[in-house]
Design the sequence.
């Protein structure tokens, strides 16, 4: 293994919380790199926290200024030979001689050699799993970041970053890994709520298309006759207790009369009724008209949970055609409630529900009537792991995302986040995010991220791997989109001319 340097003694250490080493000449050591140093009874694994340069020729400003005003100091003295690099290390843990990992209870001795850790040992120490989902590499070591699927997903995942930082790209990498899993390794069903149609490219990619089903927004239906009063009243949060009771009575009547019925049938039934008070009738009819206008309510639901959740496959709910946030929330509430119920009854396979723009569906502060899907997503976040119903929340506005849900996401992958309020919100919902880590998050570049929580044993920075699947057209550079638009206009004009 590569030698990095030698532990030095200074007023602050070595101690169990930190130590420093002088970097060997012509050796490159970077901030964030892991190191290995022998200690009593095993080897200590630490992370380089910072690197300092020192040169005793330049310690006294008055002498530097005097010399430099006559001749450059490097012409007078062998200054280059006296430049040193010192790395500060935060010890993370110890691998005992019996191979087990433990806390740091003993510092390394000054003079001990610091080396690069063995890659297999480092992967094990960080909690990576050879057979896990490969999302990238450690930034400074040739070690694959393979995340154990159970540890990553069972207790839910959140992917947080500013717009354009690479959240959807990372999700695509995860989807590739999920799709590549063999039957004998365990295949889950995946459902994506695709608010901008960013994942449709998977369906056009010959390597993946046979495992992808796209459900266009216009085809999705919430089957009224399959809903309980509780489910319908969730879509109608403004109804009073009396109005809900009346609605329940009509629903019961409809269910005994007819197997399948739509909103129109229900409205007619209410209008025909002579017992209900006129005021209640008016309210019920008016709110049901609003439901009908959305166009998503029908007699039966489509797709069914069975059509949606197939092992080793991905279902994309293409919501790009919807404008109304309420309609999108109704669909998410309906699908996720049914999926959760059927998973609890073991009617469908273990699943992962991926929610793009999660702050729209599980807002922190919105009123109940504007947060139709919040309740059920919170329930899945709280109880889902017992039934192998997992969620992955993606958001560029963590501060608007329900803290209850965010704190149930036991693993978080954070790409670049710059807004201090968002950073603070993330810090509150996850352990191990110190001020130092927050600074590093705001300096991350596209393609790099930080994994924290159950998915790994220690916070791990990762360089996300390149995706193999076809990239979405929403990722086109601005110039390219503008060129394509002018070409389209030109083509249209030429077509019109030749037609004339
Ligand atoms: N790991 C990566 N390697 C190479 N390119 C990347 C990587 N991650 C992201 N990109 C590029 O950066 C751009 C933005 O990525 P992406 O669409 O995933 O961002 P986003 O966080 O989902 O943004 P938004 O919040 O607006 O949806 C894309 O064009 C993508 O190709
Ligand atoms: Mg995106």
Sequence:
């Amino acid at each position: 293994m590569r030698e990095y340097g030698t532990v030095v003694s200074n007023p602050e250490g070595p101690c169990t919380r930190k130590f420093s080493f002088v970097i060997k000449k012509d050796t490159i050591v970077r901030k964030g790199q892991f190191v290995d140093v022998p200690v009593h009874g095993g080897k200590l694994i630490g992370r380089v926290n910072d690197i300092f340069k020192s040169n005793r020729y330049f310690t006294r400003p008055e002498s530097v200024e005097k010399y430099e005003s006559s001749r450059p100091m490097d012409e007078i003295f062998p200054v280059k030979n006296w430049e040193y690099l010192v790395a500060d290390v935060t010890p993370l843990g110890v691998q005992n001689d019996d191979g087990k990992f433990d806390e740091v209870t003993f510092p390394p001795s000054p003079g001990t050699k610091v080396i690069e850790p063995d890659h297999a040992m480092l992967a094990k120490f960080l909690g990576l799993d050879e057979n896990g989902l490969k999302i990238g590499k450690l930034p400074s070591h040739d070690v694959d970041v393979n995340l154990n699927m159970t540890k990553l997903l069972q207790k839910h995942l959140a992917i947080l970053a500013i717009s354009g930082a690479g959240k959807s790209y990372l999700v695509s990498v995860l989807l590739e890994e999920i799709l590549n899993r063999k039957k004998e390794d365990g295949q889950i069903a995946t459902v994506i709520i695709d608010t901008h149609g960013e994942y449709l490219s998977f369906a056009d990619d010959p390597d993946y298309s046979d495992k992808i089903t796209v459900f266009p927004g216009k085809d999705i239906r919430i089957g009224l006759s399959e809903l309980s009063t509780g489910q319908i009243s969730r879509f109608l949060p403004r109804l009073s207790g009396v109005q809900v009771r009346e609605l329940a009575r009509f629903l019961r009547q409809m269910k005994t009369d007819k197997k399948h019925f739509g909103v129109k049938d229900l409205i007619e039934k209410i209008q025909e009724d002579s017992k209900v008070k006129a005021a209640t009738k008016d309210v019920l009819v008016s709110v049901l008209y609003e439901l009908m206008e959305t166009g998503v309510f029908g007699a039966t639901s489509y797709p069914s949970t069975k059509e949606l959740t197939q092992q080793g496959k991905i279902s994309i709910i293409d919501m790009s055609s919807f404008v109304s946030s309420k309609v999108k929330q109704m669909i998410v509430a309906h699908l996720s409630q049914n999926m959760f119920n059927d998973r609890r009854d073991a009617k469908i396979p273990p699943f992962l529900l991926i929610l793009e723009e999660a702050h729209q569906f599980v807002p922190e502060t919105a009123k109940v009537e504007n947060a139709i899907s919040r309740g059920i997503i919170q329930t899945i976040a709280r109880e889902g792991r017992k039934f192998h119903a997992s969620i992955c929340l993606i958001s560029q506005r963590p501060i608007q995302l329900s803290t209850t849900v965010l704190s149930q996401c036991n693993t978080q992958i954070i790409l670049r986040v710059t807004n201090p309020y968002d950073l603070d919100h993330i810090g509150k919902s996850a352990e191990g995010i110190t001020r130092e880590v927050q600074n590093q998050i705001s300096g991350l570049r596209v393609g790099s991220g930080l994994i924290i929580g159950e998915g790994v044993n220690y916070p791990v920075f990762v360089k996300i791997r390149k995706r193999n699947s076809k990239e979405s057209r929403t990722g086109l550079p601005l110039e390219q989109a503008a060129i394509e638009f002018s070409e389209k206009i030109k083509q249209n004009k030429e077509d019109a001319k030749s037609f004339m």
The longest strand covers residues 42-55. The two ends are 75 Å apart (CA to CA).
